[in-house]
Fold this protein.
Amino acid sequence: MDTTLGIDLGTQSLKVVFYDYNAREVVASASAPLEVMRDASGRAEQEASWWLVALQQALQQVSDSVRMSVRAVAVSGQQHGFVPIDSNGEVLHAVKLWCDTSTQQEADEIMEACGGRERCIELAGNPVLTGYTAPKIRWLRKHHPQKYRNMAHVLLPHDYLNFVMTGRAVMEYGDASGTALLDVRTRRWSRELLRAVEPSQDLSDCLPELVESGEVIGHTTDHFAQEFGLPAGIPVAPGGGDNMMAAVGTGNVVPGQLTMSLGTSGTLFAYADRPIVDPQGNIASFCSSTGGWLPLLCTMNCTLATELMKRPLAIDNAGFDAAIDSVPAASDGLIVLPFFTGERTPNLPRASASVLGLNPENCEKGHLLRATVEGATYGLRFGLDELRRLGIEASEIVLTGGGANSRAWRQIVADIFRLPVVRLAQDEGASFGAALQALWVLERQQDSGCGIGDVTREHIERQADLACMPDETTSDRYADGYAAYRQAVAGMAPLFETDGART
């Protein structure tokens, strides 16, 4: 048996997937949980050492024979996180994650130094948002100057695992575009943005080499192989951010398809063969990890919101769909703005969750849960409006992520978006995408002309019995619900913009 290994370093867990590419099946998978250090300032951090412990725990759940069958590996990782390492490869500070909103001041400072939000979009294709990597670097410089002076490399989470596996510090274009430092049009670092982060020295000295997605970045070292129970000397693909790898894992490598990920965060994205830059900055202008571009909308509260809401409602996974089904579409006028950890789209980092429209008829557990699911989905529906404004159309949505396991949620997506919803047989999302990218690297060693589309067409299978079609009557009801949601966001936004909104 020959397999490729896909590793997905998420926010709440690390997952491994072993894909037998000859039999075309996932032969093993495992995961290990991760904690997040949070406080009222918006801080959200993890220790990089926790990732290595989780990787060991996940791999130990898989048999020796399967682990030793791996012929190539790739890593998918949560985007935007900041891993500063010194010249000895030691991590200098806890990793600030994509969902850390404590660096809003630093984000504002960088944009002001560049001439404002619009100027940043001109320079790199994106504004500097608090979740991105750039303000995290400035935060370290400001709050921990000695650690900053010792910094030799700026890495992203998946880059760090690559570094541990190979000893090589590199970065690929997809994940790099989420730093807010890369000009996505030219695929080069923006010198002006680098100076805005660090005016006194050349920050580019700390940025790793940029590599193409089809390259081999290195091979697993003997030390890594011995410690983690994997073969030594196997090729390591560049990997990418979790959204970029989810695009590969769902076959979103050519124009015309939408992928929606219902994970801790929610994402909606489409492949483009040219740079797509949103002058308003609502759609992230990212590069893909397949040589193209990946215009994307991200919300910070998706399954995170539903999991938090389930706690006080005492609703478990087994009762999730039944609770939703007990309530009509649009939840009898109840609206939940699920901004538990602030929000990126709309850009309200100081926001908190809100419940609007309670009355004696809708003050029930099922209503609160369904309205939370609908609120998370409405936030992603805004992305469809914005993508269409930029000239991107699609005929269907491929759904992935933990929330996609809910039949009720899948139907809500189809009805709110008025589009068919498709599920895939390989329901592993980003981790499966990483396994396919690793396979692509192997295939390219035999045929340099092999494209990622060749790999996805051959290895991705749809699951017809899980597809959902929109119901026109329900979609009409949701059109009114979506309008009410947008009105509620507009009305609450001024309150969220105060410094005390999340205290």
Remarks:
- The chain has two domains: 3-243, 251-423+468-498.
- The chain has 18 helices and 24 strands.
